[in-house]
Write a structure and sequence with these properties.
This protein is an alpha+beta fold. The chain contains three helices and ten strands; from the N terminus they run αβαββββββββαβ. A hairpin with a 2-residue loop joins β8 and β9.
Length: about 130
Amino acid sequence: MGMTDPISDMLARIRNAHMALHKEVGIPTSKMKKAILDILVREGYVEKYEEQGRELKVYLKYVKGRPAIGDLKKISKPGRRVYVGVDEIPSVQNGLGICILSTSKGVLEGKEAKNKRVGGELICQIW
């Protein structure tokens, strides 16, 4: 494994914490991660998060004892960036999931990016 990818690391931490049924997980902070977490909170995949110094404390969400996040998949990787035009933004799990893009108008959920008519780097899919 070459360069570490902070977003992959964040997704792996969330996935591992969910598998262990933890209530919360700590993640080193960054602007990009906060932008992604803002979307996850708004879309109902994460309860909330708090900034504690250099760490983000993410409170995981469970629905009837099961993780609110079924799975998360990193799409763009440091060695292989994946860009999509506005008309190529994927529908995730027939619209049940979301995708997150880094665009010229900030980090957006797929439907927002479509509404704003911007494409960008496809960071991850969550369902």
